[in-house]
Amino acid sequence: MQIANPDYLAVTLRSRRQKLAKLLAGASSATTDFPVILWSGKPSPRNFPHNTFPFRASSHFLYFGGVPLPDAIIRLEGDKLELYADDPDPGSVLWHGQMPSRDDMARLMGADAAFPKAALAEKASDAATILLPDRATRAEQEALIPVNEEMSLQLARAIVSVRLIQDAAALSELRAAAACTVAAHLSGMACTPEAKTESMVRAVIEGVFMANDMPCAYKSIITRRGEVLHNEAYHYPINPGDLLLVDAGAETPGGWAADVTRTWPVSGKFSPTQRAIYDVVLAAHDACIASVRPGVEYQDVHRLACHTIASGLVDLGILLGKPEDLVEMNAHALFFPHGVGHLLGLDVHDMEDLGDIAGYEEGRTRSDRFGLCFLRLNRPLRSGMVVTIEPGFYQVPSILNDPDRRASILSRPPGDDADIINWDILAKFADVRGIRIEDDVLVTADSSEVLTAALPTAPEFIEQITSGGR
């Protein structure tokens, strides 16, 4: 297991543990100074025990332990870390070669002590943990640590507070993931003139990830059916006239993610209608990024995307009325039904395993309004946060072709939307199924930095690359 700078890693991990310990010790609760135990998780069998899915350690374990070690546990008390893991089975050398020992791993993560897993039972009382989704690990957790809801909530809030702001080591990893992702998207654009199917473009993009020893941060979306927000099929042929929506991001070996979307014409040239909608989405993308700075409410960034898209669709004649009125009545959500982005870090939707504790400022709850209810982040932005900005336009048949669904979204009687949507004009945009443009943005001390800026969004650039140019 290669670690570029083990001394730097150990210093970073100890600093993170110290921040967590300070937060837990200062929490306004009768229950303080409890130990924290975090599991890495176990490899999951794919179809028989020795054929497993690729292992990905728990992000909380990685954040404080730093090493993607399977079936391992760390115990934190103050800024001290103890590693609980078993040494490799001697018989595994035949199949896997010489593996690092428990003590080797302990040195890498700067552990204060290391023990076999069985020794944890004596030191697991009165501890808090974060439950993992895999059944084998969860059974192990629940057998050792009785759930204390107050301590669990206190721990979750403390972890969120630490992980919201990315330290120098995290930013270095995020930049590496971003650079690999940019290279992969450029390769995907360049291969499109020769590609026959979505899967051929996927192979090139994910091949760049593999060549850089990085897995996918999430299941790639590479589709001509851009109106399917999380499309995970790749078998469709791609033809001139199609738009290809590509949402793909690399993950560093340490687990840090990038998340980027571009939409490009298979033919190498946007049609006039495709270019018109692309420009609307790009205007929203650029306006939102320009608004990012400390103190700005992320929900206001989302509203800016809604207003910009509504205004652009009014200019094109698709929506009728004043943009502010259309947003108030939710008309924009017919075409832009999701939130403008989310936190980014060790998880592509960072810390969403903790639910809205991560994305929503304490005291805030999700809206029940269509579109806004899908907003994943509702906090004031702070220096050091990394977020995505990803407005889009989609013609979703289950929305546009269902009068009852449209009526529910608009809070109007079915069929009472002729004064909102010009269906004849919209029909002219039938070749635009979905367009999304997404970048990863670091909130700086007084503004922002686009970590994925090396992948331009200008339509002229995209046409040049996808038509075989450089």
From TrEMBL:
* The keyword Calcium is annotated on this UniProt entry: no
GO cellular component annotations, sorted alphabetically? cytosol
User: Per the UniProt entry, what are the Gene Ontology biological process annotations, in alphabetical order?
Assistant: proteolysis
Which cofactor does this sequence's record say it needs? Mn(2+)
PROSITE patterns from the UniProt entry: PROLINE_PEPTIDASE
The top EC class, named as a word, is hydrolase
Where does the record place the Aminopeptidase P N-terminal domain?
A: 8-142
Enzyme Commission code(s) on record: 3.4.11.9
Q: Which reaction does it catalyse?
A: Release of any N-terminal amino acid, including proline, that is linked to proline, even from a dipeptide or tripeptide
- Source domain of life: Bacteria
Q: Which UniProt keywords apply?
A: Aminopeptidase, Hydrolase, Manganese, Metal-binding, Protease
Spell out the InterPro entries in the cross-references. Answer: Aminopep_P_N, Creatin/AminoP/Spt16_N, Creatinase/aminopeptidase-like, Pept_M24, Peptidase_M24B_aminopep-P_CS, X-Pro_dipept-like
Which GO terms of the molecular function aspect are on file? manganese ion binding; metalloaminopeptidase activity
Q: Does Manganese show up as a keyword for this record?
A: yes
What family does the database annotate?
Answer: Belongs to the peptidase M24B family.
* Protein name (record): Xaa-Pro aminopeptidase
